[in-house]
């Protein structure tokens, strides 16, 4: 095995300085490092050479739960390399330069993306700017404030049980936190003002997301032992990487998803134009990501109701589709009652 040397150390420092790099940027950095080490006899640098360096670095980093991993941008398919924490128990907590309220805010953003805005008929997995800013406060604190406004007496006690160590963030602090998350490449902001996980966030949080938002069916807890697990975090059928932007099968019960570039490549070879899973025609009109936002069914009650609904669904074995259909019926009933009043 190649000896761990100054080239490896310099490359680690480069990653620590910028979190992630495209393949082209990685080539430029490694070429510059080689140029400093051997100015008179520059070493030929290729992406394969870079990957060999990364392999040796990962061996050295393994005891410390860090690794340099790669993925492809979901839209451009550009290869991206990132320095990530691979210990799922310390990924979010490890962001020690963020306050407890900022970390709690980030968790609420993830809940909004992968629970609230990830529905049976609308897999958006993104959060709008306004929606993100309105997650600035601890949900229980918001509920407490509403109770106090209605003349409730238990407000102070409830506020102490909230998420994080305080009431949350001001709107200004939330905006600054969002900008930090984008600068640190946890999040990406689209031209339309929607926040999604950036490639670095997808790489580092993939295990956490699967453990948090994919429910394993437990026959002992479910009334129906045949209830399938709820899988909100899905992979592209073609590249096998996580998908938050792309296309889904026209048959909504089908689990097949494809990134847009992957769909183009897949159907260029498979000219029958049918879903590789259920074989229905693939139109490309059922979307995943921000463009599916028009189909979102808004839920009243905020994050507290969201978590309560998820917990109740796990205990009862109710499917994601049935749960959302029930909520739609409740909303329609509420609208009828309001009209009658």
TrEMBL record:
Residue ranges of the Non-structural maintenance of chromosomes element 1 RING C4HC3-type domain? 236-278
Per the UniProt record, the lineage of the source organism begins with:
Eukaryota, Fungi, Dikarya, Ascomycota, Pezizomycotina
Gene3D superfamilies referenced in this protein's UniProt entry, alphabetically:
3.90.1150.220, Winged helix-like DNA-binding domain superfamily/Winged helix DNA-binding domain, Zinc/RING finger domain, C3HC4 (zinc finger)
- EC no.? 2.3.2.27
- Region annotated Disordered, chain positions: 144-168, 294-341
Q: Where in the cell is it found?
A: Nucleus
Bias type Polar residues, positions: 308-318
Q: Where is the composition biased (Acidic residues)?
A: 324-341
Q: What does this protein do?
A: Acts in a DNA repair pathway for removal of UV-induced DNA damage that is distinct from classical nucleotide excision repair and in repair of ionizing radiation damage. Functions in homologous recombination repair of DNA double strand breaks and in recovery of stalled replication forks.
Provide the GO biological process annotations: double-strand break repair via homologous recombination
Its family? Answer: Belongs to the NSE1 family.
The subunit field of the Swiss-Prot or TrEMBL record says: Component of the Smc5-Smc6 complex.
Pfam families documented for this protein: SMC_Nse1, zf-RING-like
One term of GO molecular function: zinc ion binding
Q: Which UniProt keywords apply?
A: DNA damage, DNA recombination, DNA repair, Metal-binding, Nucleus, Transferase, Ubl conjugation pathway, Zinc, Zinc-finger
Which catalytic reaction applies to this protein?
Answer: S-ubiquitinyl-[E2 ubiquitin-conjugating enzyme]-L-cysteine + [acceptor protein]-L-lysine = [E2 ubiquitin-conjugating enzyme]-L-cysteine + N(6)-ubiquitinyl-[acceptor protein]-L-lysine
Do you know which PANTHER family this protein is assigned to? NON-SMC ELEMENT 1-RELATED, NON-STRUCTURAL MAINTENANCE OF CHROMOSOMES ELEMENT 1 HOMOLOG
UniProt protein name? Non-structural maintenance of chromosomes element 1 homolog
What's in the GO CC field? nucleus; Smc5-Smc6 complex
